[in-house]
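Need a sequence for this fold. Nothing fancy.
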């Protein structure tokens, strides 16, 4: 059965020194027996400090982007092989901030996803609707289309290394959270789409996270929903006590 996974997305926050201090504070709060998976997706330059800091906690380290070419003249980009060699296990792909500010499309999200999986990384694939789509009542169509386009060419075997993060764009960093019912329904649409592509078992085993202003106060009720298998946490992942409380809520579900 699928795993509950709580992942922090630090975005462009924290220096290596901040990272060291962060793990000193959070390690005792998240160590010990955990039933849920815990991942910290940190800026590239923080990766060594995060790997060192997370040792012994059971938490895994992820990056926030990866290029789809193996190497070459792509100034400023990082390849999957580089991440793997640094000890990175996860990578976020297709975050709405990348789609919005850096020209990421479903096509490039798909290319990055396939390259990351081929290199042995686990992918946290982000998708979700904009506010106007939610208001027009076309959320289901949008997330279903994104799921199909972003996973094109991904094999059933590779899908075992994919987590989908449903992040309604209007809920990211806004303090607005999808209601548990909205999160459950839309994660359910994503799961049904995956079932149509890969079959019922693959869909049942897929971890689907909710992301968008999840915090220590609302995590338990969101995670209580059947189709919500964890969270991708932005702002609250920068606060050790808040993030540890979300992990504790997830452990009750897992
Ligand atoms: P917030 O939790 O800050 O809303 O960010 C969510 C997010 O974008 C995680 O990837």
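Here you go.
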């Amino acid at each position: 059965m699928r795993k509950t996974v709580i992942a922090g997305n630090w975005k462009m926050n924290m220096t290596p020194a901040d990272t060291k201090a962060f793990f000193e504070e959070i390690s005792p709060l998240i160590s010990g027996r955990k039933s849920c998976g815990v991942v910290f997706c940190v800026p590239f330059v923080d990766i060594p400090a995060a790997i060192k800091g997370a040792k012994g906690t059971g938490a895994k380290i992820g990056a926030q982007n990866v290029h789809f070419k193996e190497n070459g003249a792509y100034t400023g980009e990082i390849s999957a092989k580089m991440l793997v060699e640094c000890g990175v296990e996860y990578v976020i792909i297709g975050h709405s901030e990348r789609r919005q500010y850096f020209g990421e499309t479903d096509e490039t999200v798909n290319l990055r996803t396939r390259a990351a999986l081929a290199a042995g990384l686990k992918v946290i694939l982000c998708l979700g609707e904009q506010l106007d789509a939610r208001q027009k009542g076309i959320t289901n169509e949008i997330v279903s289309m994104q799921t199909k386009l972003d996973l094109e060419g991904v094999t059933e075997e590779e899908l075992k290394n994919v987590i989908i993060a449903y992040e309604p764009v209007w809920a990211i960093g806004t303090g607005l959270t999808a209601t548990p019912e909205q999160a459950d329904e839309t994660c359910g649409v994503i799961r049904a789409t995956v079932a149509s592509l890969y079959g019922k078992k693959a869909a049942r085993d897929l971890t689907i996270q909710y992301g968008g202003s999840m915090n220590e106060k609302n995590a338990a009720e969101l995670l209580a929903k059947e189709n919500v298998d964890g969270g991708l946490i932005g702002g609250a992942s920068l606060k050790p006590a808040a993030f540890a409380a979300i992990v504790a809520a997830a452990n009750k579900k897992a």
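For context: The first helix runs from residue 16 to 30.
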